Amino acid sequence: xxxxxxxxxxxxxxxxxxxxxxxGYRCIAVKDAKxxxxxxxxxxxxxxxxxxxxxxxxxxxxxxxxDGEIVALDEAGRPSFNVLQNSRVAxxxxxxxxxxxxxxxxKSVLGLSVESRRELLKLATRxxxxxxxxxxxxxGSARKITNAxxxxxxxxxxxxxxxxxxxxxxxxxxxxxxxxxxGQELVIGGYVxxxxxxDSLLVGYYKGSDLIFIAKIRNGFVPRLRRELFERFKxxxxxxxxxxxxxxxKSARRGIALTADAMKQCRWLEPxxxxxxxxxxxxxxxxxxxxxxxxxxxxxxxxxxxxxxxx
Length: 311
Description:
The chain is of the alpha+beta class and 311 residues long. It has helices at 51-56, 81-85, 114-124, 142-152, 223-232, and strands at 4-5, 16-20, 25-31, 36-40, 64-72, 94-104, 107-108, 132-134, 156-161, 175-179, 183-192, 200-207, 210-217, 237-238, 267-278, 281-282, 288-289, 292-297. The strands form 4 sheets. Strands 3, 4, 5, 6, 7 and 8 form a 6-stranded mixed β-sheet that branches. Strands 11, 12, 13, 14, 15 and 18 form a 6-stranded antiparallel β-sheet that branches. The model has no long low-confidence stretch (mean pLDDT 90).
């Protein structure tokens, strides 16, 4: 089930359940009589990448399917996507926060209310170790929760409508997400070469079947990250620009416009890599202000990436 992005958290007393918006990899955990498996939204198996979590899932009851997020905690105990990207992060700082239940003891519970599913989720995870954690409800009004999350520097809040059922792959509005720290998943469609592997990434989002270029990302890279990211470009090179809205006119308000002449310096990639980008705001011209690279996402299909919210 997917959440709709909103500009303001709903605050109808008693009608919504609030949780932290966790900054990690969305995953479905499946436990049958033979094994436990951990799948990303685009069906990648994460057992080898997160063996501690996969091992902890072995304690889950047979016939269970759960929804949750793999999260790494920083030194202050806050979810951090940057920490999750670090291959050397201690496994004790990585957890699978579960927040919903799809199947319990071999039977679908999709049609139960979110409150009933959460009660069953507590039973399903009662014997798990610390690697598996239950996402907690947040008490208080939307305003108080939002203010507290801002002070703590958290990513955002998820609100779920009481009594709602689980609707796989849908954004029905029963789940909404409110971002505090602005971020957007964007597809990498190319780069501008530089003295250290590349000068900037060329990124965009899908509008229908068209990949729309919106930004050059220059910030957020250290030398090791540049090298590792450049290695991921191998095998994706293509002579064809994947962006439907290039070339730009000289008057494009983005610094140096990607005109037909400027595009000759670019290297194009098949749009298979997905980046998490942080920024301060969208401009009126559909651009990002003060953007920086936060990490690669491996839990979603690039074709699903659209602009999350207007404003």
